[in-house]
Amino acid sequence: MTAKIVTFGISKGGCSKSTSSGITSFLLSNEERVLAIDMDGQGNLTSFLTGEYDICNVFEDRTILEAILQGDARPYIIKVKENLDLIPANDFLATLPRKMFDKGLNLDALQNALKPVMEDYDWIIIDTPPALSEQTVMPLSTSSEAGSYAVVMFDGSMFAYYAIPKFLEIIEGAKERYNPSLQTAGVLFSLIDARAKENEVMIEAVDEDYPDMKFNTIIKRKASTRRLAIEGFEGNAELKNALEYYIPFVKELKERVSQKQPQRSN
Ligand SMILES: Nc1ncnc2c1ncn2[C@@H]1O[C@H](COP(=O)(O)OP(=O)(O)O)[C@@H](O)[C@H]1O
Ligand SMILES: [Mg+2]
């Protein structure tokens, strides 16, 4: 079985990309084999899944940067728990574009690094930075026979509203140029600023602009979800509460992915 790839993105920060990709990886790994990949030098997904915040030292020379440059992900995979592996990131990921240039690598560099492990997983879940740079374009350009999907994160803000069409354009570009198997799984509303009255207006606007793209599940703000970054998943007494909105989301994601057959280029 080849892994399905799901990339979480949007060029605005604070839209719950790292939290959502981390929780999705965790939940999927209850039943299937998951590789989570951190493509953001902030290393938030890395910290979220490992509880380790000293990422520069702890993961020195053991990150997605080295995996891409070496063209082989295998030596850089760490085990988080049963069925859940991670390729970490740290601040040195900022040097990726220059090092790729020096080595003459192109946007298929992540694809090449992942080739040896594609059969080892059911899902590869990728967190991206709030930028439309190589670190976002490369995951979107990575194809799989089982399909490659993008989840567009939206936090209900005006800034994110205007970031959506730009991210969709990047998705279209990656699909046309590098990855015909790429499809948009949907827009995930993570309304973590529950106080904002404008949310309703923004939900309607996005629904009207992008019909049928919104996941039915809307992630709402929860202190227990926020505390996952502190408490972790293991032995967390409020875990059930923290995951409440994500359980139906992951169910929906799986349904959408199984309905969207990979498109074959002919
Ligand atoms: N459902 C939620 N409820 C409460 N806080 C959340 C929720 N989702 C994310 N957060 C918090 O919001 C902030 C931004 O989330 P994060 O996942 O880092 O976004 P991004 O990766 O898009 O920048 C973090 O402090 C995170 O803990
Ligand atoms: Mg993040």
From TrEMBL:
CDD domains found in the cross-reference section: ParAB_family (cd02042)
Domain of life: Bacteria
Ranges of residues in domain AAA: 4-183
Protein name: ParA family protein
Pfam hit, one: AAA_31
Organism: Bacillus salipaludis
InterPro entries listed in its UniProt record: AAA_dom, DNA_Partitioning_ATPase, P-loop_NTPase
